[in-house]
Amino acid sequence: MDEAPASRDIARGVTPSRGHLIGEGLAWTARWSLRFLLVAAAVTVVGFLVVALWDVVFPVFLGLVIATVVEPPVTWLRNRRVPGVLATALVLLLGLAALGGIVALIAPSVAGQAPQIAQGAVGGVQQVQGWLQGPPFNLGASQIGQYIQAATQRLQESAGQIATGVLTGLTTVANSVVNGVLALVLAFLFVKDGPKFLPWLHRFAGPTSGDHLAEVGARSWLRLGGFIRSQALIGFVDAVFIGVGLVVFGVPLALPLAVLTFFGAFIPIVGSLVAGALSVLIALVVKGVGTAIGVLILILVVQQVEGNLLQPLVQGRGLGLNSAIVILAVTAGTSLAGIAGAFLAVPVAAVIAEVLRYFGEQIDLRTGEQDKPSEDAVATMQDDETEEDRGDTDTADETGTSGTSGASGTSASTPGAAAGG
């Protein structure tokens, strides 16, 4: 952008007038306001397209999330000369078998302990009724009966709406099954053809834009995969400790609540809060106030250990997102797409933050404000140096007293040594 006229006047030693400076300030504000409005309009159009094509966008997002989980074991199998199609199909089938085994393990527990929970709920309602009849409410049995009758009448009047909601829920379940199957198919294709994508994108976009797109894609993929794997490990640890604690306290549905805790970890902050609140509520209904307090203390201790010890060790720098941004992202995702939106909100926000971070690095490079490499670049260089040292050591071991050039030639000509270096 050309230098402002007032700046040129100052450089020539001419003092601009006050009106000139105010006019230039207003003109600068108008130009940037117009640009902001154009960007906001573009983002709005993209948002409308995402909402309109949600039946297509959601399986794609979910397929990418599944692909980040499947890709490491598939890569491990590929490195052991297993064909890519076979490796991908094998890992997906094993994952589905594990998920089906969890469901089969949970279902009998829920069916067997449901009467105990129902009995506890009846007892809880009777306790609440006793509290209402005593001080400070002092409600008589007739008054409580009137409230119950009014609530029953309201439910009867809303029978049509409830039936419509049930049908809508069944339709949602059917759509979820279809989206899940489509996401699995897309995940299979993403993992199978993943190594070809970045080279194709680089050729399609050209050398300059292709470099940027390939770098942004690689960073986003690493960020997304790191988030999913770290949250899975954190959720597993939380589920084990909380599940064991629920068994010790004798709370029913300990296994389903532990599984819910595991999946709740994929929705940071909000998911663990909801899963913990449900565990405390069931303990309160079935076992009483004392057990509920014990379960609450257990969950708080586990959450503190996770937040202060496990999460920093597993995630390192983490998502690079403030807690307020995480909560707002989950809230926005929930309002737009329900549970699915809450699950995908944080990964999408992390990818967007990674893209913005890359743009900021490029701006710093062009303006000369970046004096030192980023933490990711430092980690990458350290890994490269470690691999080079390991490769040099392996080469020296293979060649014995051979010269440097001979060692290099041997390493380059041997496929195993090249792969190891």
Structure notes:
- This protein has 421 residues and is an all-alpha fold.
- The chain folds into 2 domains: 17-52; 53-157 and 184-372, no CATH class.
- It has 14 helices and no strands.
- It starts with a helix and ends with a helix.
List the helices and strands and how they pair.
Elements: H1 5-11, H2 18-52, H3 54-79, H4 84-133, H5 141-157, H6 159-205, H7 207-249, H8 254-264, H9 270-287, H10 289-315, H11 323-367, H12 375-399, H13 404-413, H14 415-420
How many domains comprise the coordinates?
Answer: 2
Number of strand elements: 0
Largest sheet: none
Low-confidence stretches: 384-421
What is the CA-based Rg, rounded? 30 Å
Individual helix count: 14
Order of helices and strands: HHHHHHHHHHHHHH
Shape: globular
Q: What is the SS-derived class? A: mainly alpha
Q: End-to-end distance, in Å?
A: 47 Å
Strand composition percent: under 5%
Mean pLDDT: 74
Q: What level of helicity do the residues show? A: over 70%
List keywords for this structure.
2 domains; 421 residues; mainly alpha; globular; disordered C terminus
Q: Could you write a compact summary of the structure shown?
A:
The protein is an all-alpha fold. Helix content is 87%, strand content 0%.
